[in-house]
Amino acid sequence: MPKSTQQPPEVANDNRLVNRLCVVVFLEWVGAGAILPLLPLFLSQHGASAGMVGLTMASFFLASLCVQYPAGRLADQYGRRPVLIGGLILFAAASALFLLPLNTIGFLVLRFVQGAAAGAGEVASLALVSSAIPDERRGRAMSKIYSAQFTGTSIGPVCGALVGVAHMGLLFSATALLCIIAAIPVLRSQHIKDNDQHHLKVGPLPTISIDGALIGALCIAVAFGLLIGVYESTWTLLMDVRHATQFQIALTWTVFSLPYVFLVRVGGWLSERADRRVMAIAGLGVGLSFLALWPHISSILLIIALCPVEPFGSSMMLPSMQGLLTQGRAPAELGRIQGTYATANTASIALSASLSGWLFGIRHALPYSLAAGLGAALLIAAGISWRSTPGRTVKESQASV
């Protein structure tokens, strides 16, 4: 008799939950990504100065920084589902209100609200996966969520470019509609509702356990944020110094982003078979090595050729990082754990991005070298913190997400 390949009911239910959340994350980030590249031009056309444009764009990250931990606490206390739905509806409302004839302060407030909504939704969705999926299958589940996000952020800007800044009203409307549509699977899924109710904490929340696993994860969060912040602030400037054309600059961003969609799924598979500590440290180590290398490469063609290689490291790191962050945690902790990690990462991005431009003006390689050096020190600190943290998980036979 051939061996049955039918999944156990609990695995099939978990697959459906993760697939629904992938749809949610994809739709939200397609909409968010579509308006992002053109928003500075839209703001400029509506009277915003260069300083106000920068402040409005930065307000998104500031709001996420302020909201992520409180959102995690609300998710632990009242459930992940209402926080996720609230974030989607709030993002939709803020996007729709961009259609009104507002002044520059009004646009800044709406961008702040979008950042708060995105931060809350991110924390709630990751906490929901962490609480619903057993540790032995969590790496692949997380990788699917990240893959959906990267797919959305890759497709969204292309859609926005096709529509153009002259029709930003259409993009704002489409973004609002996509977020509303994304809320439907969360509202209709009985499995999501049941899981949320099952893990809902009645009474005072337990104190988060501050242990080596969490400290190491926060070290990685800060190191990864340093890397992202440098790229956000100075990558285009570095390419311009290398005399890259606008097309070549755009191409570097595209060929850097797209590999994540596929490689992060590989990272999820490996996170359940290899030592997660090694995967997280070595993966981010690859990214930091490239960060230190870029300012010393003068050939644009070589840079374009190497851009798809760097995501291999971060793609291996992300699912393993989530596994280490959440393994062995009580469900009532997971919202605040995700909020703490996200807050540390966002704060690091904001600080790195704000300082990198100034450092770049002193010497082009300075922000890259400094961030890589600090990141390497944080990797060592993470390794020390994880000495007694289990790096492997017991695999579930025939499990598949």
Write down the CATH class of the largest domain: Mainly Alpha
Relevant CATH superfamily of the largest domain: MFS general substrate transporter like domains
Question: What fold name goes in the CATH topology slot of the largest domain?
Answer: Growth Hormone, Chain: A
**Pairing-aware structural class of the strands and helices?**
mainly alpha
Please count the beta strands (DSSP E, at least 2 residues each).
Answer: 0
Question: What's the Cα radius of gyration?
Answer: 21 Å
The overall average pLDDT, rounded, is 86
Distance between the termini: 25 Å
Number of helices: 15
Q: Considering DSSP H and I runs of 4 or more, what fraction of the residues is helical?
A: over 70%
The domain count comes to: 2
**% residues in beta strands:** under 5%
Return the string of H and E elements. HHHHHHHHHHHHHHH
The stretches of 5 or more residues where confidence is low (pLDDT under 50) are 396-401
Quickly give the CATH architecture of the largest domain: Up-down Bundle
Main sheet?
A: none
| Basic shape | globular
